[in-house]
């Protein structure tokens, strides 16, 4: 399928696609070729103001739209997303460099959240208790809050926007999406399909830009809450600025995910899963396994892990033999390469070095080959930082207790897994580990949408997490009503008392 991408990505304001008047344009490039696909504008101050005003005005009517009507729009939307699944995946490949299979997974995981939003009637049910006192009943209802905004990263341009705006809008809010400026074409197509599904004008706005545009959303009084996925440094700014301006904020940020390998685990399953979770998506996902914690005799398996990793390579999106694609841009590639060099300088043993990776036919691609370090210690920069590339660090320990202590001392708590044949070891690990998402013989424990994405500690800032029931609570407010009605005899007796007085 060939695409004729626009020379400039449009904004979506007041229910209309429109060219920005901004003179500040950012090129969007194919990471495998450096070909400029389009340009994305940094929305002007007036355009930002109009988007926020439109969302605020539309909320007045959208909040009173019947819940089944909202659910039907989501049902139609998930149908359209499925019909255009492969098309969306191919657009995504062009601007992210992901392999086609990886891109299809990106799209489908987003569709699952939209399917969850179709259940919005049951998700927003309140609670009732009769006779909390004589003839007095008490009940709660959930109500939308107003305008929410979402700021999304480059690495999942389909899934993460779909984490946000469908649930927020299904709850009765309106939404402003600020996608990553590095890959805005996929979100644009998502919004076109949402419009086709019957979404009323104004319930969803799309603006583009950088820090200036984000700060407008963080400080504007009409914006009631912010959802963010991205780096820790940016997340800290968003959380501090948003909460300082009395907004609800949820920030899913940095990670350093460990896989504990016990000696009683299935060796081949461990190796296969480490290759996929450590190097898949070029390591550019917040749930990637980047640290292997080898316990006891499992340390002897690392040479076999190296042999399997040597069999895979990066490549173009339509290469069926490619295990993963390029880094998103040259700066990201240079950052990964700098960490590889730093690891060597720090004394880690680089048993597999992907620094000089090339791909035939794509000399300008942002390629990094599979890389493995052993003899890694927790004071090394390659351990302390989220490299966000296809780099595995191996840390050796003698016992499961040491592994748990090591992971709990890491500031992040996004995801972790343990591979073992022991139910006792698995239970101990699940109970004692201070990480929000735990896999047992599962390498990347991302929950399905009826649960929530529950990173802990340094990996999350806020109170309610993404998707699932927690997201519904984030996007709504609870109103509690205490109610009493008099029957005729009570009302007559009350009137008589008042008359006698």
Summary tags:
22 strands; alpha/beta; 17 helices; 2 domains; 7-stranded mixed β-sheet; 6-stranded mixed β-sheet; 501 residues; Aldehyde Dehydrogenase, Chain A, domain 1
Strand order of the largest sheet: 14-15-16-13-12-18-19
Main β sheet profile: 7 strands, mixed
Computed over alpha carbons, the radius of gyration is 25 Å
Beta-strand residue percentage: 15-25%
Average pLDDT works out at 95
Helical proportion, percent range: 25-40%
**What's the overall geometry?**
globular
Total beta strand runs: 22
CATH topology of the largest domain: Aldehyde Dehydrogenase, Chain A, domain 1
Low-confidence stretches: none
Number of helices, where a helix is a run of at least 4 consecutive DSSP H or I residues: 17
Count structural domains.
2
CATH class of the largest domain: Alpha Beta
Task: Kindly report the name of the CATH homologous superfamily of the largest domain.
Answer: Aldehyde Dehydrogenase, Chain A, domain 1
Gap from first CA to last CA: 85 Å
**CATH level-two architecture of the largest domain:** 3-Layer(aba) Sandwich
Which structural class fits the helix and strand makeup? alpha/beta
What does this structure look like?
The protein is α/β, with parallel strands linked by helices and 501 residues long. It folds into 2 domains: 258 residues, Aldehyde Dehydrogenase, Chain A, domain 1; 184 residues, Aldehyde Dehydrogenase, Chain A, domain 2, CATH 3.40.309.10. The protein is built from 17 helices and 22 strands. It has a 7-stranded mixed β-sheet, sandwiched between helices. Strands 9-8-7-10-11-21 form a 6-stranded mixed β-sheet, with helices on both faces. α2 runs antiparallel to α4, α3 packs antiparallel against α7 and α4 runs parallel beside α6. The longest helix has 18 residues. The model has no long low-confidence stretch (mean pLDDT 95). Its EC number is 1.2.1.27. One of its GO terms (biological process) is L-valine catabolic process. InterPro entries: Ald_DH/histidinol_DH, Ald_DH_C, Ald_DH_CS_CYS, Ald_DH_N, Aldehyde_DH_dom, MeMal-semiAld_DH. Belongs to the aldehyde dehydrogenase family. It comes from Pseudoteredinibacter isoporae.
């Amino acid at each position: 399928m060939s695409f004729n991408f626009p020379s400039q990505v449009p904004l979506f304001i007041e229910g209309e696609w429109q060219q920005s008047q901004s003179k500040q344009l950012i090129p969007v490039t194919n990471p495998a070729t450096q070909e400029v696909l389009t340009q994305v504008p940094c929305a002007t101050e007036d355009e930002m103001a109009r988007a926020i005003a439109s969302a605020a005005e539309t909320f007045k009517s959208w909040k009173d739209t019947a819940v089944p009507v909202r659910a039907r729009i989501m049902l139609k939307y998930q149908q359209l997303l499925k019909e255009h699944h492969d098309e969306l995946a191919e657009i995504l490949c062009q601007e992210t460099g992901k392999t086609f299979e990886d891109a299809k997974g990106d799209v489908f995981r987003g569709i699952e959240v939209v399917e969850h939003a179709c259940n919005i009637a049951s998700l927003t049910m309140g609670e009732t208790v009769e006779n909390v006192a004589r003839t007095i009943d008490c009940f709660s209802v959930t109500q939308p809050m107003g305008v929410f905004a979402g700021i999304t990263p480059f690495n999942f341009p389909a899934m993460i926007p779909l984490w946000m705006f469908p649930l927020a809008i299904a709850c009765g809010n309106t939404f402003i999406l600020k996608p990553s400026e590095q890959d805005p074409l996929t979100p644009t197509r998502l919004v076109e399909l949402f419009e086709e599904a019957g979404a009323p004008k104004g319930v969803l706005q799309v603006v583009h830009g950088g820090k200036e545009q984000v700060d407008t959303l963080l400080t504007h009084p009409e914006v009631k809450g912010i959802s963010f996925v991205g780096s820790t440094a940016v997340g800290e700014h968003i959380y501090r600025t948003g909460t300082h301006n009395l907004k609800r904020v949820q920030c899913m940020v940095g990670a350093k995910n460990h896989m504990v390998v016990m000696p009683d685990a299935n060796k081949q399953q461990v190796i296969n899963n480490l290759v996929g979770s450590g190097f898949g998506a070029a390591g550019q996902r917040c749930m990637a396994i980047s640290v292997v914690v080898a316990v006891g005799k499992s340390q002897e398996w690392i040479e076999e892990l190296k042999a399997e990793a040597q069999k895979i390579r990066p490549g173009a999106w339509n290469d069926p033999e490619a295990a993963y694609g390029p880094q998103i841009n040259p700066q990201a590639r240079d950052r990964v390469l700098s960490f590889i060099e730093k690891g060597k300088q720090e004394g880690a043993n680089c048993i597999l070095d992907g620094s000089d990776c090339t791909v035939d036919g794509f000399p300008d691609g942002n390629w990094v080959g599979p890389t493995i370090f052993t003899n890694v210690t927790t004071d090394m920069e390659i351990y302390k930082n989220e490299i966000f590339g296809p780099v595995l660090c191996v840390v050796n320990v003698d016992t499961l207790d040491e592994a748990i202590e090591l992971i709990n001392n890491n500031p992040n708590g996004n995801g972790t897994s343990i591979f073992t044949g022991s139910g006792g070891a698995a239970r101990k690990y699940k109970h004692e580990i201070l990480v929000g998402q735990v896999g047992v013989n599962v390498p990347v424990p991302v929950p399905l949408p009826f649960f929530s994405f529950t990173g802990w500690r340094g990996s999350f800032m806020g109170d309610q997490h993404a998707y699932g029931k927690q997201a519904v609570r984030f996007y709504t407010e609870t109103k509690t009503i205490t109610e009493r009605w008099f029957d005729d005899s009570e009302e007559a007796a009350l009137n008589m008392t008042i008359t006698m007085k």
